[in-house]
Amino acid sequence: MDMLDILSVSASGLTAQRVRMQAVASNMANARTTRTPEGGPYVRQMPVFEAVPQGFGDVLAESMSRVEVIGIEDSPDPPVLVYDPGHPDADAEGYVLYPNVNILEEMVDMMTTARTYEANTNVVKVTRDLANAAMSIGRG
Fold it and tell me: How many structural domains is the chain composed of?
């Protein structure tokens, strides 16, 4: 395993967390959207990740995997039915279908995503520092 493998794994993690943060931001921004072009309320978006083996070699190298975003799926949870007779999208009984977005869950996802992104950034920084140290040893 070399430093490029480490950087590749961390870079894939950074990309995956960027996609996850975009999904969280979209979910939070649309938490009250009751009407979409597709019809009905906004549906929570969830990125789907897959571990991709990093390469061949020793046991450690084989256990390292990059992460790839293989898609973004709609949440299977049903919309939330709320009694709001004054809402323009209320049905005949006064109920409105609101998105299946829970702001508290999205906030937890956002914090987890930010911490994971930060961890991957730290791995890149430490790898860079190690490479610089190795190069300075070679020069000296």
Answer: 1
Q: CB–CB of 46/75 below 8 Å?
A: yes
Q: Which two tokens stand for residue 90?
A: 């209320």
Q: Is residue 55 a part of any domain in this protein?
A: yes
Determine contact, residues 99/75, Cβ cutoff 8 Å: no
Domain-embedded: residue 139: no
What does the CA dihedral 68, 121, 114, 112 come to, rounded to 10 degrees? 70
Residue 43's domain comprises 3-132
Cβ atoms of 8 and 63 within 8 Å: the answer is no
Which tens digit of pLDDT belongs to each residue from 15-73? 999 999 999 999 999 999 999 999 999 999 999 999 988 665 666 655 678 899 999 99
Which regions of the chain does DSSP assign to beta strands (E)?
A: 45-53, 65-74, 80-83, 95-98
